[in-house]
Each structure stands twice: as C-alpha cells, then as structure tokens.
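Archive transcription. Copying these from loose printouts into the bound notebook so they stop getting lost. Printout 1 of 2:
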Amino acid sequence: MLKVKDIMSKQVITFSPDTEIAHAAKLLLEKRINGAPVVDEAGSLVGILCQSDLVTQQKSLPLPSIFTFLDGFIRITSIKQLDRDIQKIAAIIVAHAMTPDPFSVRSDTSIEDVANLMVEKSFHTLPVVDDGKLVGIVGKADILKTLTSGS
C-alpha cells in the first residue's frame, strides 16, 4: 500500500509569517502551485497560504447583518468572522492572510486516507509533518500521478 512518503514532494516552497503578500502571490503563480506551508524559524508548521487566501483580498467586505426584535438589536454575522475577513482583505504579510493551524498528515499516512481527506474537506494541498517538523507536501496532482504510473 502506498504511503504519503512514497509520493510527497520533499523540496517544499515555504513562507515565513513575515513574507510580504506580493512576494508570496508572485511565487505561487511562478511555481504554479496552489499553496505553500508557512513555517516559523524552528521549521514548525504554523499555517498554510493558498491562492484562495489571496483571492480573499479582492472580495468586498461583508457588512454585518442586524435585525431588531422587541426593540433590541440582534447580530446575525459573527464579529470574530468579520474581524478575520478584514484582516485577510487588508493583509500585507503572510501571517495576516494565511490559514493558521492547517490540517496536516504524517508521512506514513495511506494514500487512500489522504484522498478521502482531500475530497471530504476540499483540500488541494496538505503539509506532511513528522515529529512536529514539516517534511514534505502532498497535493491532488501527486495522487493523480499514482493512477498513471500503474501503481
């Protein structure tokens, strides 16, 4: 049975939380990748920056929905989510736009488990972490290659 370690990319493009958004966007486009892990100085995974995180910067700011009930105001949208949207839209460094604490898999995870996770959660890319350190990355394309290699 194939494992993540058999198909993952070990040479991973990463960002630090302080990387400028413009540089990160340019690198994702140049390398034609959907996303890249964000690691701290110790090499620990702290987030992931995907193209969808950057596209968020182009959306309009959702205004909170409020309605009145018995002369009181009831907020429909979450203030926490509104704050997060504002932070992503105004981001100038990766730390402000990334998705913190992303899902990750271990190198000994089966390909079937990764495929299920990608389908169920709509993930395109998953960091591979062993013993708290980033060791690779696996994407949908890596899984598709197993279909054409006869494995």
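Printout 2 of 2:
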Amino acid sequence: MVNIKKSVLSSVLKKFLMAITGFVLASFLLIHMLGNLQTFEGGPHAINAYAHTLQTLPWEVLWGFRLTLLACFVVHFLTAYMLVVENNRSRPQQYAVKKSLSSSLAARTMIYSGTVVIAFAVLHILHFTVLNLNPDFKILEWVATGGIYEGKTLHDVYAMLIMGFSNPWVALGYVFAMIVIAFHLSHGVSSMFQSVGLRNEAWRYRLNAIAVAYCVVIAAGFSLNPLAVLVSKYTDCEILPVKCVLKQIEAQKAAGAGKIFVDYGFLSGKAAKCAAAKPEAKK
C-alpha cells in the first residue's frame, strides 16, 4: 500500500512538473512567434532592432532566461519519457488497448511528436541562433537607418530569414515541424489544465477548444515567414522582397565580399530596385 501511494504521488508530481514547464514553453512559443512576425512590418528595421535588443540584454538577464528555458525543456521531456515508461510497466495490455480506443490520436502519439519537437529545436538553434548550418548567415549585416540604433551595424536577421527560407526543403521542413508542434500542443495545452486541477467535465470541451485554437495560431504564425518567402520567390506575388534581397546577396558573394550589406533603399524608393550594394572587401 505504501509503495502504491508513493507511486501515485510520484506520478502526480511528474504531471504537475510537466504542466508547469509546458506552460512556460507554450508561452515562449507565442512570444517568439510574435517577434518573428515583425518581418512583415515593411522592412528590416523592426525585426533587426528586436533581435539586437535581445542579444544585447545584460548577460544575467539573457542567460538567466536561456537557462530557465533550457531547464524547462529538459525537465518537461525527461518527465514525459519517465511517465511513458512507468505507464507501460504498470498497465496491463488489455487495459492499454481499451484506453487507446478512447484517447485522441494526439494523446497516443505524444512521445513521438515530442521527439520531433526535440530534434527540430536542436536544428533550429543550430540554424538560426548559433548559425552553424549556413556560414553565410554570419556575414549578413545591416546599418540601422532609424530608431535608437541609427548608424549602428547590426546583424541582418531580416536577410537571414529570407535567405534561409528561400531553400524550399528548409521552408517546408519548418512548416511540417510547426504542424507537428501544434499537434503535440493540442493535447498538451488541454491536459496541462487537468494536471494542475483546473479542468473539470464542465470545462473539458471549452478548454479543448481553446487548446486547438491556440495551436492553430502558433502553427499559422510560425508558418507565415517560410510560406511568404516561398510565394515571393516562385510567384509574382511579392509579399517579402525575396528576389531583390537574394540578388544582392549573390552578387556580393560572387564579388568576394567579407561582409554582406543589403541595400534596402528600394523599399522606400530611395534606390533603384534591386541595385546591389557595393561589397566590402575581405579583411
């Protein structure tokens, strides 16, 4: 009896930890998505300034946030795997089959969708944060023409996103990952309320609907950038200035530029459309 009680308490604690860390991660996704959507504010100014502000936060704040997020990520997924192992060991096969018939597909595949989320998170950080998967990202720079950073040279995140998502495999893989993440969240967000005792039968369907709506917003919001880049590159519908930005980048790379500066003057009519900026010589 004592062992059973300890097992139940242990399971409840793990689910509570998953709920809390899941809430932190789900909230971060919303904030991150809103930040990414600044690419649609008419040019590089908003997202480049936003990215630079984040990167230049006091190290205590920046690394405190990163380590907290990492801890939540690790605890969330380790706890999930531990619960799966415990459930498989303690549940009779007949009961498992019976329960699988009444649970949703998202619930039954959480461990698999979660594994995809882990793989995507690692690749995403290597690609767009550490900049290890495409060395050209590191030489994309932009001279701020307004705001608090006017005259300063910042990393050109705007051009980096356009360049990264101009590869159809990267863009479509990103969209696929967003769909899997939304699928994972569709069950996780709803069950999160149950784990902390905030979901009852009266609110079950309402919270499920809220969870689904949230997941659709997250998936759609993150998918807008890669889809906009693909549409702009392969059609005449120019949502983002993809063709012009890529043309300038390729011209400066061919000229052996040590740093690449895209001239965005064409966006405000201050420069001829798609005129390549003078490349900076290698140092």
